[in-house]
């Protein structure tokens, strides 16, 4: 303070020609002493100490710089505010002093605890410390500061396990951990606190004496005063000292603005103006200057711009504890956000009540504990964890980490699947085999074996078998509206056509056998026209059933979300289940009827037909489709389609291999048996 006043008095720019005087009182950090001193200088008109005796305002106090502690400043302000004497404190931080209703004359160059509380809470959150304890000095400074910190901590989601008041006379059992404590109390705490505790503190962390005590370096009585390093001899850490320096300059600038003005580039001050302290109070609100790179101004509450330096105690290589700046908190430039922090230690201590819940689990608060204390329980299937378990939408599923929902994979029997490739290959092979068989029959259409087995129905049966093999391809690929309608109706119609042809051939065999009986003219009633009409009639009935099905409620593509929770199955819904089972039921009735007739014809002579082979083929056909029903109903997802295709291919291969393979073998490899003479001789035998 003395240094600042002397510097101002020697300045040619600030208050030129005017000298400031001062009186210094020691409050001894005691409220009664501070109040006594306040009344003393208010009631005294003793000459103010000056560098000379030429003082125009002897005995008049224009402003007060101080006090250091918040409690002292509160008491001092309550005494002098009635006299409109401005008070500028360099070290009082209680946020309560920002209340202009109670402290209209109070200003300060040290930021309010409100900003410090917010900075501390953000710093704690920056390190991920969500569970802390707090102890305060039992004073106005400590209690108000702690209230501000607890509010800021709650806003940042930090749990405070305990908040205890502390006094240097308290027993050791109450000495725990501290955030807001007066410097005097810290020395007591430094002896008692555990070295494993992480300390977050305010201004006291820059006290070199505290660093010495915190590492058990006590005086032994042999110290050399010339080499002594303490807060009075160390000039490298003048943080609070600089605030006192700025407080004096703030008062000086207020006086300067009241009595001085610039005329033609020259500053002139009216030395004879009789100043009132109220004028200084008004001018202090307008003060805005920069001194040695430090900006000074006051807001409506008398508070300066809050800029904090973040420091860390670190041991140097020679074992000396040093204060190292590691960051900055600027409420203006950083938008009240913590700036970049340079963390010099490799590991950061952990202070949480419960570790973060792993992915796929949620928090369950522990009864009677703060919100930072919880148990982790698994989320239900299909849900991800955030603050709570959240279900994914129907077409989404949690990823492996269970921290986000991703689209479910879509599954259907495609031409790229191994099963799809195999089934499509057999379908094409079957169609090709049927076409080759038809070509062989066509080339040998005039031979007895072809003519004896009703060549017209044989060619129609081969055509229908070709369509049966090819219709299985419509079941492979992504279901669409047209493919869903085509696959079931094509399957139903082609297989009815196929069975109708087999049925016609079987009836022809029976009629032909009856025709050999003398006097029988049965073949007249079941000649080629009747055979064609029989096939067309049976097929037309199936076409009619399929048409009604498609008109009333046709099959359509759907996304099956119920069979598998973790994936989507693209499939064809039946539309009308009655239509589907009507198609399948009609086919089953024809197949059963054909099988019965084939059984009746199985013992007929081989020169007329292959009655036994027809019986075997129909037995295979009926067995396949009887087995199909339970397999179809119980198969999940795309395997339903696989079962249906397998049934189509198995029954189709059964028909062509049983009915046509033996004939082709005789035509190609046993041509001597494919003669009329051979058939007559065989019949005679």
From TrEMBL:
Keyword Transmembrane helix: yes
SUPFAM superfamilies in alphabetical order: Periplasmic binding protein-like I (SSF53822)
InterPro entries: ANF_lig-bd_rcpt, GPCR_3, GPCR_3_9-Cys_dom, GPCR_3_9-Cys_sf, GPCR_3_C, GPCR_3_Ca_sens_rcpt-rel, GPCR_3_vmron_rcpt_2, Peripla_BP_I
Homology family: Belongs to the G-protein coupled receptor 3 family.
Subcellular location per the Swiss-Prot or TrEMBL entry: Cell membrane
Stored CDD domains: 7tmC_V2R_pheromone (cd15283)
UniProt protein name: G-protein coupled receptors family 3 profile domain-containing protein
Keywords: Cell membrane, G-protein coupled receptor, Glycoprotein, Membrane, Receptor, Signal, Transducer, Transmembrane, Transmembrane helix
Membrane topology recorded in Swiss-Prot or TrEMBL: Multi-pass membrane protein
Transmembrane segments: 418-443, 455-478, 490-513, 534-552, 580-601, 613-633, 645-669
GO molecular function: G protein-coupled receptor activity
Domain G-protein coupled receptors family 3 profile: 419-683
Cellular component GO terms, alphabetical: plasma membrane
